[in-house]
Amino acid sequence: KEGWQGTNLKLESYKEEFKGNQMKIKVNEQLPYFVSNIVDVGYYWLFCISVE
User: Fold this and answer.
1) CA-based diameter of the chain, in Å?
2) Model confidence over 1-50: pLDDT tens digits?
3) How many independent structural domains does the chain possess?
4) For residues 9 and 3, what is the distance between their CA atoms, to the nearest angstrom?
């Protein structure tokens, strides 16, 4: 019985680690779009200043 409990604890630990890694992957997939949007806004802002 103790062996099963230890295995279940490891399984739960792996599940939590897996969920955390999925969140990291999701953030890393979104980051390039976020950075490119900031750069686009920065260029637009610089363009508006130079026109004035």
Assistant:
1) 77
2) 677 888 888 999 999 999 998 988 887 777 777 767 777 777 666 667 66
3) 1
4) 10
